[in-house]
Amino acid sequence: MLVLGLLHMLLATLSQASVLPEQVHISLSGKPDEMIITWLTLEKLSKNYPFVSYGTNPGQLIMTAKATTTEWKHKIKRYTHRTTLKHLEPGVKYYYNVGSSEGVSNVFWFTQPDQYKPLRAAVFGDLSVLNGYSIEPLIAATHNNEIDIAIHIGDIAYNLHTNNGTLGDEYMKTIEPIAAYIPYMVFPGNHETKKDFIEIINRFTMPKNGVYDNNLFWSFDYGNTHFVGLNSEYYAEQLEDEANAQYKWLKNDLEKNKSRWTIVMLHRPMYCSSETEDGCNDPQDTLARDGDKHFPGLEKLLNEHHVDMILYGHKHTYERMWPIYKGTAFKSENPNHIRNPSAPVFILTGSAGCHSHSGPQDSIPQDFSITRLGNYGYSLLQIHNSTHISTQFVDTSENIGKHLDEFYLEKN
Fold this sequence. Notes:
By secondary structure, the chain is α/β, with parallel strands linked by helices. The longest helix is centred in the N-terminal third of the chain and has 17 residues, at 2-18. Strand 24 and strand 25 form a beta hairpin. It is globular, with a radius of gyration of 22 Å. It contains 9 helices and 26 strands. It has helices spanning 2-18, 135-143, 166-174, 176-179, 194-203, 233-236, 240-256, 283-290, 299-304; strands at residues 22-27, 35-41, 51-55, 63-66, 68-74, 76-85, 93-100, 103-104, 108-111, 119-124, 127-128, 149-152, 156-157, 184-186, 218-222, 225-229, 261-265, 309-312, 318-325, 328-329, 337-339, 345-349, 369-373, 377-383, 388-395, 403-410. Strands 15, 16, 17, 18, 19, 20, 22 and 23 form an 8-stranded mixed beta sheet that branches. It has a 7-stranded mixed beta sheet with strand order 14-12-10-24-25-26-21, with no helix packed on it. Strands 3, 4, 7, 8 and 9 form a 5-stranded antiparallel beta sheet that branches. This is Purple acid phosphatase.
């Protein structure tokens, strides 16, 4: 009887733990006075609804927002809870916790973006729990008020679906000290394609695009900058209908764009140096760039709409390139301060830390290449004003926190 009693107590404790909130993260909705809050439970809540309590005083979370719940299954059932906080004031620090009557989280905080202030964005691809060199430095940068937003440009956790999704759970809990405090924006890489992108669709909440609204491509404005996240895997996976729908949406999105700066991101590289003389020309990658009779190429459209910068990952290294269009580099006097370019600047930033890594010694430099680095790290993109933006590569392996390859882009 004693053993049975202890077993019942253990099962009750485990069940209670499974309805406690975990993997808390926030994201932008595309509206300047909103913030999306997302979290998971591993069990279904019983007869009560999930909510967020929030306020401007950590001891008085006097406002409440009800959340919705999505049940989904990838070998194991999980429950994603989402709500959008509205009518938030720019520059104000909000404290919040999430949960239900069955248990709530610790108190987190975020500062609602002030669209009139300069922006500091950490942009990186290919970050894993294993060899995740950039995780601790990103946590430090978040809590030292050095970055305002994180943008993970595909290949998340390696993999979100591994071990029935438990590795995804571990990754999301590991990055909670980043993602619960600053917006953590994502779109898929090749490691998120499993089972029709099920993990990235159900774990995250990105701005709606009006086409699929499933986190796979999106855009938002932040101050004077228009950010676009694209799904290159529609091309690599030969998803013709989806690629054409995304292209149609992108064309309309860019035609409506009135922002001073336009930053486009995707996972697979359009240009890079590689192990071969002809550079980065994997057919799965070049299809998104050039297109064919079934798939619309992206490069021409992005150039026609005067996109300023294109960032991507996939290759586990760092490389900054000249402005390029159709393979031609538009060089100028100073590679570290480019003025009024006639094509987008390209940056490969896939060295945040995962199972493999490469450096300059592993590739043959192309004519369009400016800088190649073998360090682990992430790109710090700063929108200073209407005439200047800059990027630096933040080292997270050798001289942690050191800024390398400082580059300015000027437009007047």
